[in-house]
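Re: your question from the hallway

Yes, I did run it. Sequences:
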Amino acid sequence: MKRVRDIGEFGLIERIARKLPRSERSIIGMGDDAAAVMVPTDNSVLVTTDMIVEDVHFTRKISTPQQVGWRCVAAGISDIAAMGGIPWWALVSLAIPEDCDVAWVDGLYDGMIDMASRYSVEILGGDTSRSKDKIYIDAVTLGQAPIWSLATRSLARPDEMVYVTGEPGRSAAGLEILTSRPSLAERFKPLVEAHLRPLPAVREAHFLAETGPLGAMIDISDGLMQDMRHICRLSGVGARIEADRLPICDTLRDYCDQVGKNQLDYVLAGGEDYDLIFTCEEDSAHKLEKLWAKRFGNRLRLTHIGTVTEPSHGLKLVDAHGKEVPFTGGHDHFLKKRGHRPG
Amino acid sequence: MKRVRDIGEFGLIERIARKLPRSERSIIGMGDDAAAVMVPTDNSVLVTTDMIVEDVHFTRKISTPQQVGWRCVAAGISDIAAMGGIPWWALVSLAIPEDCDVAWVDGLYDGMIDMASRYSVEILGGDTSRSKDKIYIDAVTLGQAPIWSLATRSLARPDEMVYVTGEPGRSAAGLEILTSRPSLAERFKPLVEAHLRPLPAVREAHFLAETGPLGAMIDISDGLMQDMRHICRLSGVGARIEADRLPICDTLRDYCDQVGKNQLDYVLAGGEDYDLIFTCEEDSAHKLEKLWAKRFGNRLRLTHIGTVTEPSHGLKLVDAHGKEVPFTGGHDHFLKKRGHRPG
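Structure:
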């Protein structure tokens, strides 16, 4: 087995450079002091970072390096999408122990390149360092969006409707299966796949930002309620989420029946689905739903799950009778520890 | 003592957000799915990342958090400068153990903000995560440069002259004093300061890129010979560096006399000086030297240290008689281990 210390830092960098496909999209890619890219006039440059840590966000025992690489890049692509932008470039900083198997690093980049190329994202290089024990990956993702179509977390207004795309909670259930109930992995494969190979909703988010008018938008990385809370805080509003309206994936329902769990726990608190929450005025909502159905109807659900309220109401989950339902959950890296939680 | 786990991830993020000064330079700063910025028409966006690892690039014993923060941000600012660009924004990803003192994180951001504000760089946020033991910081720096003035590593041509700015080697000597000879720190303070509070040559690099015509340019982060080797490899050339021409800082000379070391070892192999190496045609060199002297003469040395050669000559260090002088050194994170080496 060849280890990283056998080939050295510059050997590793050259190995990575040979792997990375070059595109015409960058002016200067890997190998210089900095990468250089251009965006069209009147477009903003979007940039986001995601730090992924071994034994916090993944373990080498459960995930293949390809799966880790895929998820690293997917997280940033989803963030750019949630701004209404198109992701174009990524850089990856990597700190690895010197006894790390070179094949593991190869696999990591294979997974990143696989994910990135599906979304036409070019990986421009990054930085490498020795770490003391674990693997640390910081994925930086850049994209562009016309200024007028930027979608932020801070523009939700009272009385707007709250929507969610897809069927959140699948990724969290998939992770639980992988860590605690591996014998069920084959039977509930869609949940496991949702965790290991999430697909950011780039086209869908771009459609929403362009079709508008949106209030706020966010991708679900911390959990539906937690991310809704981000919108509430940054927009200075409250929200009422109706439990009965929440979209539940059939496979998730079957899994919960099998293991005796409450499906709402996954839907409300599970992160890393890369589904989108957004708000829009009631007047435009009907038209938006029709356009969505025409464009994505059979491929991705769009569900009206609640209403933006005055800030004094706070964020509430209610049942069919409008009665408040208590909930906990959402993700905090320091306050909670849930084994190997997706980041 | 308040620890990170006491305030939680979102508590930490809010604490950082309150610290960071907002500027008018970004459209969307910290707190959204991604940050959004704009650059003027016909300008490229430059982006670079630097991963800084506790007990690889710094130790909490030797460096204050303010010093670590300063150096994190300085590294990326220097990279943008070495492309002929102006640094404008930074993002910081941070993985820290949950028992980390909150005051340490405060100090880190104080140092980053101090450095960034000297160069009018806005810190736009980033990502935070729990780490398993050590502190990991990935600093992402963005800037802009008109396409016509981009300075790369790949455009050196045979017969061009090789220049270096400043007096490289000071930072490496300063680190050695801090780690092995702390009793000498006061006496050789300029060397220690060069390590702890390096000042990237942004105005100087920008002047060179605009005044041109430059061949290649790079900042000295891995060591003078190692970084010259990067230019040679990417430009497909060789180079002859003349040992007698190398600029030696008086304080470094005194230090070497005192401890019985060879000053050339520091000048040739010491990294993290953020001085610049560049090449330019002999015809323009005289004019460039005159303009430099007028602009920066008393503040920063500019020294002609050698010549670009045909690729078959390789990279050579020669003495006053043109005889080759053997050398080793330069920095590789995996192949070499030198205690707490700057990155």
